[in-house]
Amino acid sequence: MAEEMLRxxxxxxxxxxxxxxxxxxxxxxxxxxxxxxxxVWHADGAWLQPVAKVNRVDLPLLKGIDRVRDIxxxxxxxxxxxxxxxxxxxxxxxxxxxxxxxxxVHASVNASGAKYPLKLIEIxxxxxxxxxxxxxxxxxxxxxxxxxxxxxxxxxxDTSYKSLKAALDGGVEGRPENVVFYATSNRRHLxxxxxxENERSTAINPAEAVEEKVSLSDRFGLWLGFHxxxxxxxxxxxxxYAAHFGLEQDAERTRAEALEWSTxxxxxxxxxxxxxxxxxxxxxxxxx
Length: 288
Known about the structure:
Order of helices and strands: HEEHEHEHEHEHHEHHH
Structural class: alpha/beta
Strand content: 5-15%
CATH topology of the largest domain: Rossmann fold
Helix content: 40-55%
């Protein structure tokens, strides 16, 4: 009988401990910006996860985007040297290297020996509401920080874009001097066109309604457009990757295969070029 009562008591204690564990959040790691060059922000727990190895390509491998590459690199270089710089919105065709460019420029500027250490912090789209918390966390740091949000856009019923507007340039404190915000999007104004048109058709003052919706993109001093690449640019990407990774094959065969690859996917882009190069390396028994 005593053993049965003891087992019952232990079961109840285990259940109680499980309830307490769920009610009390786990202690989040105390991460500092000294631990890595790149981090991912987790709003749940308000902590920075260090990224040991960033998924990036070298800047010279990004072909067909020379103009926007130079503009973003110059803006980032100025920022890392303590000079005024703009927030940047990289918008346009999918697969043309928008997010790859941000990560490549971060590495390139860090390697150039800038005045201040340059950190990259990725914030997910769904965590935008926590942006003020993150800004307060890094406001007085010596490092310069690029806040990076990939594939930023807002749906019709989403009002979190107002939090982003205030964090970028509005509010009493404004954006910290040691922070710039880089975002990528397929939409130039970050909001769906039907949302903007609906505001225009239902508002008493259509111009003011549209102004409210598109003013978010005005917070970005740099609008860098990415457009579909030509066939020659697409082939330049292919041969650039092949030369970098030492994938030696007859040039005419590579050209024919690359064009067929893009035809089967219905588009030409940096992403499609990279996918072909991966296939080519796999057929050669190579890893990238």
